[in-house]
């Protein structure tokens, strides 16, 4: 029997110089812009997503938000965190796993979770390297932060992309939506 896997989708923002967070995972450079009430692109993106997969750094950052922003199941890939690190209020929604991308995507597919939102710089890199990312939506923020955590680091091979659409947004943001061609 052929193995089946969930598909990965990326929806992220980066500084113009390619960083998704500061070294300490801070997003202060992004949060200073406020909210564009007319932008519903994230809500549109998540309508068709079954599960969110994030790394431990992203999980720790999101735990610091005023409220938990997700309504879908969340899997946190970590070799250091355990289920005991998940607040009691999120135990039903958040699962910690120490799996590689292939094993996780196979597990998700078996659970009927076929479209996975992959979030977190290093995590996105590993899922791209393992050919599990089907589409990338990247919003470029008009700021140079000089150093931090890169969205795209070292890759095992060239990744060809096809631009699906591009749109200018409030605050000078540019959102590009790509299909990954060689997965």
Automatic annotation (TrEMBL):
Q: Which InterPro entries match?
A: DHFR-like_dom_sf (IPR024072), RibDG_C (IPR002734), Riboflavin_Biosynth_HTPR (IPR050765)
Which parts of the chain span the membrane according to its record?
Answer: none
Q: What are the recorded GO MF terms, alphabetically? A: 5-amino-6-(5-phosphoribosylamino)uracil reductase activity
Entry's Gene Ontology BP terms = riboflavin biosynthetic process
State the source organism's domain of life.
Bacteria
The Bacterial bifunctional deaminase-reductase C-terminal domain extends over 10-167
Quote the Gene3D superfamilies the UniProt record gives: Dihydrofolate Reductase, subunit A
Q: Under what name is this protein listed?
A: Dihydrofolate reductase
- The protein's organism comes out as Tenacibaculum pelagium
